[in-house]
Design a protein that fits this description.
Order of helices and strands: HEHEHHHEEHEEE
Structural class: alpha/beta
Number of domains: 1
Mean pLDDT: 94
Radius of gyration: 17 Å
Strand content: 15-25%
Largest sheet: 7 strands, mixed
CATH superfamily: Vaccinia Virus protein VP39
CATH class: Alpha Beta
Distance between the termini: 26 Å
Helix content: 25-40%
Strand order of the largest sheet: 3-2-1-4-5-7-6
Shape: globular
CATH topology: Rossmann fold
C-alpha cells in the first residue's frame, strides 16, 4: 500500500512500555498505519478540525494516545471504550499522558527509575518522554468508559470519526455480546451521526457485508485490511 499521509519515520518514542503504558498479551496497533487511516478518514470527513475521535474497542488506549500526540492540530477530543475494566484503567493512564500534568508525572517516574537503576533503557525512555512532551500544543479532552459496544444504544457525544482495530484470531479475546465486523457495524449504526466516518482495521479473513454503510475506501496492508465507511 502506498502511504499518502503518514511519513516513514522512527516511532520508537511510542514503543509500548517505554513511555506509554503496556499490558501483557495486548498487541499495539502500528503507529504509521493508525496515522494513515486517521488522515484518510479526515480526508473524507466534512469536518476538518476540532475532531471528536472515538475508539469503541480501545483496549489500553494505545492508538488513541498515539493519534493524540501526532494530530494536535485537528483533534479536540479522544474518547475510548472497552468491555475490559483492567484495560480501561491503563487506557486512562495512557490518555493522561496527553496532558501537561500527566506527562510530567511520567517524566518524574522515569527520572526515579534512572536514579535507582541507571539502566540505558530507562534513560532512553526518559528522553522519549521529553520529546513527547514537546509535541503537546494544547490539552486534548480525553475520556474512557467501560462498555460492551454491542449493547451501546446511545453516546453522550457526537463522534466525527470512529476508529477501531477489530479483534481477531488468538491475538486478543473478542469479548462482548456478539462477534464479527458486521455485528460491530450494526451496533455502530445507531451511534453514528450522518457525517461520521468509520475506519476499521481487521484481519484479511474478516469481511464487511453490511448494507447499512457505504464503502468509501478499502486497502490491504500485509495481513491486515482496513475499510473506511459512512452511513448509507
Amino acid at each position: 500500500m502506498e502511504y499518502k499521509y503518514a511519513a516513514n519515520m522512527n516511532f520508537e518514542d511510542f514503543s509500548s512500555s517505554r513511555v506509554l503504558y503496556g499490558h501483557r498479551g495486548v498487541t499495539n496497533f502500528p503507529v504509521r498505519l493508525s496515522q494513515e487511516i486517521f488522515r484518510r478518514c479526515l480526508e473524507f470527513s466534512s469536518k476538518k478540525k476540532d475532531i471528536v475521535l472515538y475508539d469503541c474497542c480501545c483496549g489500553i488506549g494505545y492508538m488513541l494516545t498515539v493519534l493524540g500526540f501526532l494530530n494536535q492540530d485537528v483533534i479536540y477530543s479522544l474518547i475510548g471504550s472497552d468491555i475490559n475494566k483492567e484495560l480501561i484503567e491503563i487506557a486512562e493512564k495512557n490518555l493522561d499522558l496527553l496532558s501537561y500534568n500527566g506527562i510530567e508525572k511520567r517524566i518524574e517516574e522515569l527520572k526515579a527509575l534512572v536514579e535507582q537503576y541507571g539502566k540505558q533503557s530507562h534513560k532512553d525512555a526518559l528522553a522519549s518522554a521529553n520529546r513527547l512532551k514537546e509535541l503537546i500544543v494544547h490539552e486534548i479532552h480525553t475520556e474512557v468508559f467501560q462498555a460492551d459496544v454491542f449493547k451501546l444504544k446511545y453516546l453522550p457525544f457526537k463522534p466525527d470519526i470512529i476508529m477501531a482495530d477489530v479483534p481477531y484470531g488468538d491475538m486478543v479475546d473478542w469479548q462482548g455480546a456478539g462477534e464479527g465486523v458486521d455485528n460491530l457495524l450494526d451496533s455502530l449504526y445507531s451511534l453514528c451521526e450522518e457525517h461520521t466516518i468509520v475506519g476499521l482495521c481487521m484481519n484479511k479473513k474478516q469481511k464487511v457485508i453490511s448494507k447499512r454503510f457505504k464503502l468509501l475506501e478499502k486497502q490491504n496492508v500485509g495481513k491486515r485490511r482496513f475499510v473506511i465507511l459512512t452511513k448509507d
